[in-house]
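User: Okay, second chain of the day. Same drill as before: sequence in, structure tokens out.
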Amino acid sequence: MVKKTRSDAIFKKPETKKIARIKKIKEFFFEDNKSEYKKFYIFLLTSVILIFSFFSLPSIVNYIDDDFVKNKIYINISKKNFDLTFNKKNKIVKIDENINMENIYDDIDVFSSNSENTNTARLSASTIEQLFKDTNYNLKKVKKTKLVNIGNNLDHLPGEMKKIENTKKRKNLFIQIVLPLIIEENTKIKIDRKKLFVVLNKNNNSNADIEWLKKKFKQYGVVKNDLSTLKTRMDEIPVSLAIAQSAKETGWGTSRFAQKGNALFGQWTWSGDGIKPSAADNNSTHKVASFKVLKASVKAYLRNLNTHSSYKEFRKERAIQRDNDGKLNSLKLVKHLDKYAETGIEYTKILSIIIKQNSLTEFDDVEILPTSKKLKSLI
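Assistant: Same drill. Structure tokens below.
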């Protein structure tokens, strides 16, 4: 038998009954049951996953059904095309080069030269003035609030425009009539342009998006479904410029074309529908297009500037202004409308004078008075 030394006795603690009991408890909780705890945790985690999957399954099924079964998916590569076009990451792609005139004016009401513009009542100048007074519509208020009520829209100019001898009064009345018409049509384009950007920013295009784009390609005469060209053409015309051109073309609402055919912008037509200018020679076949209502004339004018090849430089300058600060400058844009009239550059100079003398740029940031929360969110 080996005899224990004194040092062994010092460093080895005697194992009392109390210590042995504690040791057994530790072994029970921390060693013997380790496997049981692992099984419990695995069971708990598996249960949570199954419960989450159970509640999420209907939503997942609906998502797959809606987006992958019921609708066709169109991969939108337009964003890439826009990057290549406007950011010049690759070769420069020509935009706004070609046009298909076939369906451009299909949604605009015109009428033949044999028709009379009596589809709605023509109000007298005094009646219109009283109407504007009753609705608290005046240009001073519009310039202050930057809002106009399109509920004041009229279908025809009053027949007494020539009889209003006071030039300021005649101009004021003319602007009051055409202003809400121009702003309403510009607002429609503004809403369409916003929708275009929403469509372009989608990764996938729905059937409704595709049909909407097809319609707009036709309205703006875009060939080969060129989204870059559609973006360039689908834009507003400065209100000051539109008022100036309508004033010049109609003599502030006194011309025969404006009175008889609701023609505010003197657009020519060769289709046979319209009013023949009295100064035109016998060999001339063109006429001034006539419209059922003034609004149709405004819409045709905006569509003309936004599509015709003669105004390609105008649209190019407008796109540059949009890219720079987002605002449109009518006095710079007007320089690119020399092809609108036979007098060329002289015509653009006259328009500039009209804009400046009548402070028309004060109307450029006027918007329509929203009649609903939905309309307010759109504009």
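The first strand starts at residue 74 and ends at 75.

User: Thanks, on to the next one.
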